[in-house]
């Protein structure tokens, strides 16, 4: 990296060349002193800085308070220590540091006979305010959600964890975007081997640009061919704070309202934030429903094909006769019916996402009803297929994590294909293959199916918050994500 020289004109030439044809870069020369003996060069990016901070804390102070009584090479130090009233100031020595600071929203000051420049923190990015969560809606609990400003997101987490053990390490990822990535962890709870692996993988990322946390998610996962997520994303600050207190590592990426939490197991994708805000009996019942819905979302279409086409004798006689009667004039085989309806529901789902919010829900509901009814009346599909496809779609909406839902949607077609060729044997074979695949997954050395496998490692404590959520005073130990020296999180019990 090219170093800053003591010749101001040479430094200006380098900066002017780098920012050539960048009309949003503000470059200004001004002089200090009665005889204008001190020349200062200031550069910053327009519209992403705090203009009042530049005018009041830098320009006004330098022009009104700066006295010329010493060597030029000492003036920059005096500006830093006595004149400029901005909290975060630092010296930079290379042009690359200057370019990064200017594009980040900071202001750079250079002076003749100084081989360093001053970097003043004047960031003022335009951003939306803190709004309600859109993808993880809860009935009871906090409503605030992360924003696109990484610094704001860190504040939302610190507001919930007022502990000096909460550490924040910052780095930049992306050769061109230089996206800010903050690594958050609880110093005394986190497992050091997980933290070190996260840092190594983040530092090893070599890519031009990071535009969203989804980039980090894909680049950090171990098995990229798997349809199942190996890292967890959330837009809820309370969920991120809870993950930190469990010993997990949280990655806050700038320019996106979603943070990444590692490690992740299948169990955490079925947990919602409000599971811990209401009574344990009702939330255990709801969580059991989620697991059942997850199984039906994968298995129901394939099971319907296996039973109606290959093994109708396993159905009750009245039900088998009713299904056969409704399919009597259908021109397509049962597999074709299922595929037609599943693809139709996938199209409706995507249309509902892309359309404006006021009409998206209407299109989804009305479109589903009209298409299903019209298809049945036209004799294209049978009513039982519409019921199976609708119930499968409803089951996917019960699961609180969209990434897991996407994985289950793909797994559904695997089960469907196996069942179409091999019947019930193919159905069970597909489920076994998926189970073996999930058992082979690991997220930063934690088995994906934990605590349903290897639960004895943590003395079966993690089963207290799995399919059923026991009362809070029962969950005295932290999950397997935390280090073994700080697993105790509740010392007393219910009094």
Q: Helical region count?
A: 15
The strands making up the biggest β-sheet line up spatially as 1-2-4-5-3
> Which stretches of 5+ consecutive residues score pLDDT under 50?
none
Instruction: Specify Rg, calculated over alpha carbons.
Output: 30 Å
Q: How would you sum up the major sheet?
A: 5 strands, antiparallel
Helix percent band: 40-55%
Structure explained in plain terms:
- The protein is of the alpha+beta class and 495 residues long.
- Helices cover 46% and strands 12% of the residues.
- The protein has helices spanning 8-18, 51-65, 72-83, 95-104, 150-158, 192-204, 213-220, 237-245, 266-269, 280-310, 317-326, 334-354, 357-377, 383-398, 402-440; strands at 25-32, 38-45, 89-92, 107-111, 117-120, 166-173, 179-186, 232-234, 249-253, 259-262, 442-443, 446-447.
- A five-stranded antiparallel sheet has the order 1-2-4-5-3, with helices on both faces. Strands 6-7-9-10-8 form a five-stranded antiparallel sheet, with helices on both faces.
- Helix 12 (334-354) packs antiparallel against helix 13 (357-377).
- It is elongated and about 105 Å long.
- The model has no long low-confidence stretch (mean pLDDT 87).
């Amino acid at each position: 990296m090219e170093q800053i020289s003591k010749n101001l004109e040479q430094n200006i030439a380098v900066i002017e060349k780098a920012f050539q044809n960048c009309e949003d870069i503000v470059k200004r020369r001004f002089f200090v002193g009665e005889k204008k003996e001190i020349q200062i060069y200031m550069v910053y990016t327009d519209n992403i800085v705090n203009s009042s901070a530049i005018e009041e804390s830098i320009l006004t102070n330098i022009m009104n308070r700066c006295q010329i009584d010493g060597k030029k090479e000492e003036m920059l130090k005096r500006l830093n220590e006595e004149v400029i009233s901005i909290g975060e100031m630092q010296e930079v020595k290379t042009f690359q540091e200057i370019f990064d600071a200017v594009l980040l929203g900071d202001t750079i000051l250079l002076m003749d006979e100084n081989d360093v420049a001053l970097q003043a923190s004047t960031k003022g990015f335009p951003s939306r305010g803190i709004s309600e969560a859109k993808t993880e809606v809860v009935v009871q609990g906090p409503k605030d959600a992360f924003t696109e400003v990484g610094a704001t997101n860190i504040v939302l987490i610190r507001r919930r964890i007022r502990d000096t053990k909460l550490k924040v390490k910052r780095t930049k990822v992306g050769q061109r975007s230089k996206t800010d990535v903050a690594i958050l962890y609880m110093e005394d709870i986190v497992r050091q081997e997980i933290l070190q692996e996260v840092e190594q993988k983040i530092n090893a990322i070599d890519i031009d640009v990071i535009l969203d946390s989804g980039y980090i998610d894909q680049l950090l996962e171990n098995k990229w061919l798997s349809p199942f997520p190996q890292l967890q994303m959330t837009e809820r600050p309370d969920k991120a704070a809870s993950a930190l207190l469990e010993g997990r590592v949280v990655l806050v990426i700038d320019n996106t309202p979603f943070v990444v939490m590692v490690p992740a197991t299948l169990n955490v994708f079925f947990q919602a934030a409000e599971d811990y805000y209401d009574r344990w009996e009702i939330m255990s019942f709801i969580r059991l429903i989620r697991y059942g819905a997850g199984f039906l979302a994968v298995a129901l279409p394939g099971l319907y094909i296996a039973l109606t086409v290959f093994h109708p004798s396993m159905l009750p006689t009245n039900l088998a006769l009713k299904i056969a009667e409704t399919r009597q004039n259908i021109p397509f085989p049962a597999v074709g019916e299922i595929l037609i309806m599943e693809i139709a529901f996938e199209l409706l789902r995507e249309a509902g996402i892309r359309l404006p919010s006021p009409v998206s829900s209407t299109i989804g509901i009305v479109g589903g009803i009209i298409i299903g009814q019209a298809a049945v009346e036209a004799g294209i599909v049978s009513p039982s297929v519409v019921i199976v496809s609708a119930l499968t779609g409803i089951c996917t909406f019960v699961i609180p994590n969209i990434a897991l839902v996407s994985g289950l949607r793909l797994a559904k077609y695997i089960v469907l294909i196996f069942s179409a060729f091999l019947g019930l044997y193919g159905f069970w074979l597909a489920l076994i293959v998926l189970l073996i695949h999930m058992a082979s997954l690991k997220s930063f050395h934690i088995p994906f199916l934990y605590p349903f496998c290897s639960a004895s490692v943590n003395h079966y404590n993690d089963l207290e918050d799995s399919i059923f959520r026991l009362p809070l005073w029962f969950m005295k130990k932290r999950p397997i994500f935390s280090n073994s020296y700080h697993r105790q999180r509740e010392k007393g019990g219910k009094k």
